[in-house]
Structure formats: C-alpha cells, structure tokens
Specification:
Elements lengths: L1 H19 L4 H8 L8 H21 L20 H17 L3 H7 L5 H26 L6
Protein name: YeeE/YedE family protein
Pfam family, one: DUF6691
Keywords: Membrane, Transmembrane, Transmembrane helix
C-alpha cells in the first residue's frame, strides 16, 4: 500500500511540476535572470509551495508516524557547514546552467529529450561519485564537514 501511495504522490508532484512550468528550462532561466528579462512567475509557484509546506511540516513535527503508519523521519541537522554551502552552490550552478533541477528532470524523462537524458545521466554519475568519495572518507576516518 505504501508503494502505491508513493507512486500516486510522485505522479501528483510530477504533474504539479509540469503544470507550474518548472519543467520548462527557458522559464526557469528567465526566473533566474535577475539582471535581464526576469520572469517572476516561478516565484508564485515557490510561494504557493511554501504556503502548503509550512502547515504540513508543523503537523508532521507533532507526529511519530506517517499517515500510512511508517515511522516518521524528519531531518535533524541544523548546522550550516562548508559541505552544505558547497552543495547548495553546486546545485544552484547546475540549475542555472541547465534550467533544470532533479525533480523536473525526472518528470521530463518520459519525453525522451536527449538533453534531459544527458542531464539525468550526469546527475546520477555525480551522485555515484559522491557516494564513492563519502565511503572513502568514512573508511579513512575523515570528517564529512
């Protein structure tokens, strides 16, 4: 049952990304172009997401289990460290260069667009490299921060 719910939530999320225009790299790049012809439409999408997410996270913080009965696992890290900043910079640079981030890119996979396929393949390679480096760091007793 949890897999079915996860599938439905993923489909609704993907549909929301498509309807909102988050899967259109030109619109995303227009939003990120503050010095040029800025397109503010995605600010409303993000604002709407925050309005929905804030009460949902407040409710989740008071619960021990999800609505399906699974243990609820919310992030506990609160420290802003070098790794977080560098990761955010890398994410932002990738988003600005490609006009895509992981969610919209995965939603666009069904189109078979070559650029999207290259983006997702590159993203997966980057995630794999990160995992290898992390395991190496941990096995050599090096801190992650």
């Amino acid at each position: 049952m949890q897999s079915l719910i996860a599938l439905l939530v993923g489909l609704v999320f993907g549909l929301g990304l498509i309807v909102s225009g988050m899967t259109d790299p030109a619109r995303v790049l227009g939003f990120l172009d503050l010095a040029g012809s800025w397109n503010p439409s995605l600010a409303f999408v993000m604002g709407g997401a925050i309005v929905v997410a804030l009460p949902a996270f407040a409710l989740a913080a008071r619960r021990q289990r999800t609505l399906t009965g699974a243990p609820l696992q919310l992030p506990t890290a609160t420290r802003i460290d070098r790794r977080l900043v560098l990761g955010a910079l890398a994410f932002g640079a990738g988003w600005g260069l490609a006009g895509l981030c992981p969610g919209p890119a995965l939603a666009l996979l069904v189109t078979g667009n070559g650029k999207v396929l290259v983006f997702v393949a590159s993203m997966l390679v980057g995630m794999g490299v990160f995992e290898v480096v992390e395991r190496w760091r941990q096995s050599n007793g090096r801190p992650g921060g």
